[in-house]
Amino acid sequence: MGMVFGKIGVETPKYEVMKSTNEYEIRKYPPSVLAEVTYEPSQFNGNKDGGFMVLANYIGAIGNPQNTKPEKIAMTAPVITKDSGEKIAMTAPVVTKADSEENENRKTVTMQFILPAVYGKAEEAPKPTDERVVIREEGERKYGVVKFGGVANEELVKEKVEKLRKSLEIDGFKVIGDFLLARYNPPWTIPAFRTNEVLIPIE
To answer: pTM of the entire structure?
Structure first.
C-alpha cells in the first residue's frame, strides 16, 4: 500500500545540497554506477517506458535476474529517462535523458537505473545477459533540480525545464547538457502522491 500512496522505501542517491532557493536546489552527486538501455519507443509499440521491463529483468525485479551471476539487485529510486525526441530538451536529457541526436526519424529514449551503492565500479555489477543493457560509471556531477508532484507529462515537464533553465541562467549558472527526468514512484502510485524531479547539469 505504501507504494500506492507514494512512500519511497528503496535506496535513493546521496547528494550534497550546495544551494537552496524557493525555486530550485543546486546538488552535487558523487560517482555512481548505472544500468541503462537506449531504444526507440516503436520497439515497444510507442511506449516510452518500455525500457523499464528490460532493466527490471536485468536486476530481477520480476522473475529471475537476467545477469550472468545470476544475482538479484535491489531496486532503487528514481528511474531516470532522457528523450531525444521531445522538443523540451532545452532549446539552447531518463532516469528521461535527452540524446543530442536530432534525427527526427529516430527518436530514442535512454532509461537508467542507478545501481545500489554497494557496486562502486562498473565491473563489480553483474554482467547483463541482455546485450541491450549497458553498465557504466558516471562521475561526480552537479545539477540544478526542481521537485514536483503529479503525472510527469510532456507539457508539465516542458514547463518545469524552461522555468528551471531560466532561473539558473539568471543566477549565473552555466548549463552544460540536456535535462534528466527522475521519477521516484511506480506507475500505480496515485498521481497526487508521486514525486518527480527535473535535473539540469551545470558547471
So the answer is: 0.85
